Amino acid sequence: MTDEKSDVEKLKNRQLAQEQVARDALADAVTEADAAKQERRADKARYLREKLQEREQSEQKAGDD
Question: 3-15 burial, b if ≥16 CB within 10 A, otherwise e?
């Protein structure tokens, strides 16, 4: 379980980093199309990070039962 938890934590950290990179690129976007692309990437990374958080909480709850 500890290895699995660290894997989820690593994935969450990776998604956070990807979101931050996309948000930084959004600030530097030259065209509207590029800005939209970076915003979608950031939103996707945030969504995946939130889903990982939900999974982690669900697994913790299942472990408590």
Answer: eeeeeeeebbeeb
> CA-CA distance, 22 to 9, in Å (whole number)?
20
pTM check: above 0.85: no
CA distances, 16 to each of 10, 52, 62, 65 (Å): 10, 11, 25, 30
Q: How many residues does the chain have?
A: 65
Burial (CB count within 10 angstroms: exposed 0-12, middle 13-18, buried 19+), residue 26? middle
DSSP string over 21-64: HHHHHHHT--SHHHHHHHHHHHHHHHHHHHHHHHHHHHHHHHHH
For the chain, what is the mean pLDDT? Answer: 90
